[in-house]
Amino acid sequence: MSVQQSAPPKSNSAYDVVVVGAGFAGMYMLHRLRGQGLRVRVFEQGDGVGGTWYWNRYPGARCDVESMQYSYSYSDELQQEWDWSERYASQPEILRYANHVADRFNLRGDIQFSTRVDRAVFDEDENIWQVATSDGKTVTAKFVVLATGCLSNARKPDIKGLESFAGPVYHTGNWPHEEVDFTGLRVGIIGTGSSGIQSVPVIAGQAKHLTVFQRTPNYSIPARNAPLTAEERKKFRDNYPEIRRFAREEARNGIYTEIPDRGALDDGDNERRARYEARWQYGGLTFMSVYNNLALDKAANDTAADFVREKIGEVVRDSATAKLLQPTTYPIGTKRICIDTDYFETFNRPNVTLVDIKTNPIAEISAHAVRCGATDYEIDALVLATGFDAMTGSVARIDIVGRDGRTLNQKWAEGPRTYLGLMSTGFPNLFVITGPGSPSVLSNMMVSIEQHVDWIADVVGYMHDRKLDTMEAEQGAEDKWVAHVNEVAWTTLYPQANSWYMGANIPGKPRIFMPYIGGVGPYRQICNEVAAKDYEGFAMTRAERRQKAAVS
Ligand SMILES: Cc1cc2nc3c(=O)[nH]c(=O)nc-3n(C[C@H](O)[C@H](O)[C@H](O)COP(=O)(O)OP(=O)(O)OC[C@H]3O[C@@H](n4cnc5c(N)ncnc54)[C@H](O)[C@@H]3O)c2cc1C
């Protein structure tokens, strides 16, 4: 067990690395860099660690990658000793895990909580970042790592009259720390993405009445969540080396599962149905791994989409409601597939109403109601499950100024541009973890986070050993990578959906496919090859000033 702390800064405000964010990415980044003897400061706007699991405390929140895989792999002791209680851990348990990691690796001393990074300016004369924080101070650092999260900038919808609503308004992505009790209340929820789908059954069980306002229905697969037995945990633990290796190197999405050996149209109707049924009964995200062409071939995809639509039709008793809940406008899996516990069953409850706001948009919110067309749906409390300004939202909220006074927001105005999702030309020594242009949200994020952290820690060590001052993505390498990311995306069905992968949930946001779809295994290989070729595509410099100092 490591009990290291950062070496003391040269001055109180000079660091080797500033890390922004103390979610799973920021915590591991701190641990790795500190292990290399570097002076590190983490700034976190929340007052605790855990990121996503600190903010998303809504009822029903839990992971959708199985806990035994949605966990750090970097410490075998940690993965052997931590007991996950359920197949999919709930938010409180994941937050306990994050806190356990912070204590076990003695991280808190180097994290400054309740402090936002507002601005980071690259000083080209000194090759140093000036980082201004919400407590009015400025620190300097050679490197800045943005561990700001892909789904951390909660999106409040722009609905007329929202501020005039008399009751409480909650956002799933910024839920109060105190328990919210909906007993006896008429509750409205806007949004039926993953957070809506997880919270609807729980809120419906408590509220007097729940009105669900749905714009786009989502494909959702039963989670089949259950307590984990000691035997199940042991099976994972005994096989962790292979499970983790497979997730990193072979799985496209960082999840250990069988690799399909055929396409959906290679089987006859009965065989195909039996396979879908088996996965439906097994539950979880691996439903999409039944066949190897569901993301590529529309006819193949239709067979899976039809199966799920049929299931929805079987579960939901009212046929008009079932029809509204059946997605038809985009291929299955091209928006992040959801995992639920009794979501569709909930619409059979007498205290739940589904309102279609696609054909009948919300016109206005008044003190006590949500108005759609001529109908007022009276409510006492409102839940916004309206998602995030994904992937770039939290980065955009920081005023980042690179070479020649150019801001990252100016550079990314037409969509984010990176080399390998890790760096952007014009912004030396600035890294992004799970940024646009990397597999990121298309993967088990723990796998992607650990890969990025290790890669960044290694290159920082490489530069340190060679006394290099700056590292920057070359323009040509970045252009080629952006073209490659797009090219791969357009060979799949993904761009057919208006998803948050495309920025489509944010009015005015440029539509480009942000994550890299080539798979975590091939992506890791590319990153490793780049590193092996002395960081090909990155320009590294040693400042004149330093060279002179070294000579004298
Ligand atoms: C409800 C929900 C469920 C999810 N389930 C899964 C799952 O099952 N499997 C999976 O792989 N992924 C899942 N994800 C994605 C999840 O975000 C990642 O798995 C992971 O937790 C991201 O970690 P992170 O450290 O990169 O970012 P985050 O956890 O988002 O942490 C970023 C931190 O940076 C802080 N921050 C941002 N900007 C600033 C600033 N300017 N100054 C200071 N601090 C700042 C934020 O406050 C936040 O604490 C889920 C996401 C949500 C919202």
Q: Which descriptors would you attach to this protein?
A:
552 residues; alpha/beta; 8-stranded mixed sheet; 5-stranded parallel sheet; 17 helices; globular; disordered C terminus; binds flavin-adenine dinucleotide
Give structural notes.
This protein is α/β, with parallel strands linked by helices and 552 residues long. It has helices at 24-35, 52-55, 76-81, 91-104, 194-206, 230-238, 240-249, 269-282, 298-315, 319-325, 343-346, 393-396, 408-411, 445-465, 475-490, 520-532, 544-551; strands at residues 14-20, 40-43, 111-112, 117-123, 128-133, 138-146, 169-171, 186-190, 209-214, 220-222, 338-340, 352-356, 362-365, 369-372, 375-378, 381-384, 399-401, 430-432, 470-473, 538-541. The strands form five sheets. Strands 1, 2, 3, 4, 5, 6, 17 and 18 form an eight-stranded mixed sheet that branches. Helix 14 (445-465) runs parallel beside helix 16. It is globular, with a radius of gyration of 24 Å. The chain starts with 13 loop residues before the first strand and ends with a helix. Residues 546-552 have low confidence and may be disordered. The protein binds flavin-adenine dinucleotide (FAD). Residues 20-26, 43-46, 51-52, 54, 56, 61, 63-65, 70, 116-117, 147-152, 195, 394, 398, 433-434, 444-445, 449 line the site of flavin-adenine dinucleotide (FAD).
